[in-house]
Amino acid sequence: MQVFQISAASFQYDGISAIRDLTLNISGGERTVLLGANGSGKSTLLRMLDGLCFPSHGSITAFGDPLTQHSLNNLEFNFNFRRRVGLVFQNPDAQLFNSTVFEEVAYSPLQLGWTREELHRRVEETLEFMGISHLRDRSPYRLSGGEKKRVAIASVIVLNPDVLLLDEPTATLDPRSTSQLVDLIQQWKGSTKTVITATQQLDIVEDIADRVLILKEGSLLADGTPSQILSNTQLLLTTNLIHAHRHTHGNVIHAHPHLHRHSHDEHEH
Amino acid sequence: MRHSIESTLHHFSHALSNALISEKIAARQTLLQKIDVRIRLIGTLLLLIAVVLSHTYRGILVLLAIALCLAILSGVSLFTLAKRVWTVVFLFTAVIAFPALVLTPGPPISSAFGHFQVTETGLRTAILLVLRVETAITITAVLVLSTPWNKLLLATRALGLPAEIVTILGMTHRYIFLLLETASQMFESRKSRTVGILHNADQRSGAGKTAAVLMMKTMDLGNDVYTAMIARGFSGEARILEEPRLRSRDFIALLAFASAAFFCFWIGR
A140 vs B174: CB contact, 8 Å cut-off? Predict the structure, then answer.
């Protein structure tokens, strides 16, 4: 089943193209990674898929229905769509706008009109699942970067959405928090959950994706499996996802592509 | 005189540490903290009404004694009250009360202020005013210091404050700390790159630029937060968590507050 169908979509910010003539299908249960350098359109694409901005040309459908401002103005469609699709923002401070962690996780269920008992039960379960029960009365400004990210994810998965959109989920996280997050995404492998992750971290791609898309200047440059994409050094170089590594051998300066995979101890040259 | 950047940084960290002290007190499980916040709020209002309606020292002193007992039994140190409340309130109220010393007609007791004479009635009026304000602010401070700010805001719903106002105030409180932290980092960054001593005009100019940048960041963050609210199901209607049901000990506490307020009003008529 197709979850999203994007047909020749384009989007501009203040006259600057962020997405150009993009055509793409995302199937249910697929774990997709969006790769691309800064400004390649990853975040804009995720926002479009979450119905936060809409293509100026072309169209998007979600679960077979057109995803437009008009359709989201319909409360029934809006509630159904928001329950099924969740976006974890890159900046957790934008996403965590409530006074305590509990209120934060309870925000979406509250907006969707869940009963008091159901809301409390589900929020407690989610806090437990994410290992943040001890933070329930803490203010978001008193959380570490890793804790904020976990709360941000909890605030989305509390609805048990069918589709999870993750915008740079490991950015600013320490290695341990990154590893915990990768473990979490791996748990959804084989489930019906569709996970789309925008990242620039190549070392986590094989762990969290079945499919990799590379964006460059708002256009789709490549679409393949993780091994196909990550083995294409030239493609990664031209999209600024890897860089030339220079070092000296005696008086000779030696340069070659530098790709980090799995860990710094095992990185490939 | 302290350098203005250092002074600003000092004030930022002072504001943050004050907030942390209040959170620690509010998190304790002592007397007031065990009572439902709505009852604490209503009880405080009853005591404040009694302060306003008491016209004798006796009534106000009993109310002050009640406030001090509540503070001690709720883990609010008298030192904190003296430092944060009594000194500042005394200075401000004394300025307001001073004219009453010499302008209120009555039997003179001193002529220390040139042609003006301090009257016995004036002295009584001034002392009563200072005592009344100190007592009222102490009662309020005990409530504020023993209650998490977000719960206090939610409790105002019991007094009929609209959910929209409660939501806006809650978000304001949450983001004040983020902006304080951002402003503090901006000032630190400026300080780390400042060579030599800046003239006052340059310092004012730098502070103005910082304020402008902070304003722009605030607007961007505001947009991001609104987008995050939409993404999580906000559809224009503010919904907030329901407070838990009142327990028998809450009703006993309400009765105690009402009895104390009535008793003080009665002896202070």
Answer: yes
C-alpha span between A5 and A35 (Å, rounded): 19
Nearest to A258 by CA among A239, A246, A248, A243: A243
* C-alpha torsion B30→B35→B38→B41, nearest 10: -50
Burial call A238-268: b when 16+ CB within 10 Å, e when fewer: ebebbeeeeeeeeeeeeeeeebeeeeeeeee
* Cα separation, A212 vs A3, whole angstroms: 17
**Integer Cα distance of A137 and A102 in angstroms:** 6
Say how far apart CA B39 and CA B257 lie, in whole Å. 9
Measured in degrees and rounded to the nearest 5, phi and psi for residue B113 equal -110, 55
Task: Say whether pLDDT at A162 is over 90.
Answer: yes
Structural domain containing residue A212: 2-266
CATH number assigned to the domain comprising residue A211 = 3.40.50.300
pLDDT above 90: residue B80: no
How many structural domains are present in chain A? 1
Q: Provide the terminal-to-terminal Cα distance of chain A, rounded to the nearest Å.
A: 40
Predicted confidence band at A266 (pLDDT cuts at 50, 70, 90)? very low
Which of A82, A111, A167 is the best substitution to test chain B (most B C-beta atoms within 10 A)?
A111
Report how far apart, in Å, the C-alpha atoms of B203 and of each of B1, B7, B118 are.
Answer: 14, 12, 46
pLDDT tens for B184-243 read 888 888 878 877 777 778 877 878 888 898 889 888 888 889 999 999 888 877 787 877
Q: Give A158→chain B minimum CA distance, Å.
A: 11
Q: What is the pLDDT of residue B5?
A: 62
Q: Residue window 59-98, chain A: list those with CB within 8 Å of chain B.
A: 75, 78-79, 82-83, 86-87, 89, 91, 93-98
pLDDT tens per residue, range A12-42: 887 888 999 999 999 999 999 999 988 899 9
Domain residue spans of chain B: 32-148+244-267, 163-231
User: Token pair of A43, please?
Assistant: 């975040």
With contact defined as beta carbons under 8 Å apart, do B19 and B122 qualify? no
